[in-house]
Design brief:
The chain has helices at residues 15-24, 73-88, 142-156, 160-174, 180-196, 200-211, 217-222, 224-237; strands at 9-12, 28-33, 39-44, 47-53, 65-70, 98-99, 103-105, 111-117, 123-128. Strands 5, 6, 7, 8 and 9 form a five-stranded mixed sheet that branches. The chain has eight helices and nine strands. It is globular, with a radius of gyration of 19 Å. The longest helix has 17 residues, at 180-196. The chain has two domains: 9-128, Roll (2,3-Dihydroxybiphenyl 1,2-Dioxygenase, domain 1), CATH 3.10.180; 142-237, Serine Threonine Protein Phosphatase 5, Tetratricopeptide repeat. By secondary structure, it is α+β, with helices and mostly antiparallel strands. Helix 3 (142-156) runs antiparallel to helix 4, helix 4 (160-174) packs antiparallel against helix 5 and helix 5 runs parallel beside helix 8 (224-237).
Amino acid sequence: MAHEITVPLLPCGPIDEIVEFYTMLGFTRTYYQVRPYPCVGLQREDLQLQFFGMPNFRPEDSYGSCVVLVPDTQQLFEAFAAGMRAVHGKLLVSGIPRMTRPRKRKNADNYSGFTVVDPGGNWIRIFSSPGTGTTGAPAVGTLARALENAVVLGDSKGDNQQAAKILDATLARKHDCAPAGELLAALAYRAELAIRADDTTAAVDALTRARAVPLTEAERSELTADLAGLEDLEAVVGLAP
């Protein structure tokens, strides 16, 4: 048999919070009930999710998670990001709910991935479908390898503190000799980790250092996504680009 469809059923608190959040991301409500128990279904094109409400639910304690495979993680991220910017004027990059940026995941065969953490604390882990997405080459430089390890810890496991320690140690040693692209990406991610930790001072420092990285026109063209990421983070901390 082929063409099976799996629809995750995930826990949450008030289902209206879930509806509001996913509507912002471009989903439409396909099912809704409050009795005998709260439940809601949501769909965006072929992506379907369902949620059941629980009393006294704590999103920070949730183990809810699912994997979604898509042809183009960057395209879906940009659509979600546009919805967040339209409603909030910025990306939600810390707390609950939040969203990470698409990054190569060495623990997923170097396919690009990003994560949406919804108001129920559910981790919707979005990856490129094998054979459709573009895999990145394994990192070569010391700072690039450190960034890969930090992304696994921060974006896949939620260990932002250890991810920051890895980057800080490597940036201290390699800041003056790392290639511009590696340095910019590492500093941008360090800023994002600082925002997640509510450390605005460290975030502003990393963003200021990132903006000071000298780039050629060719590098600017190649690093368009990274530079756009800096703008999103600057909007969060109120720092003008």
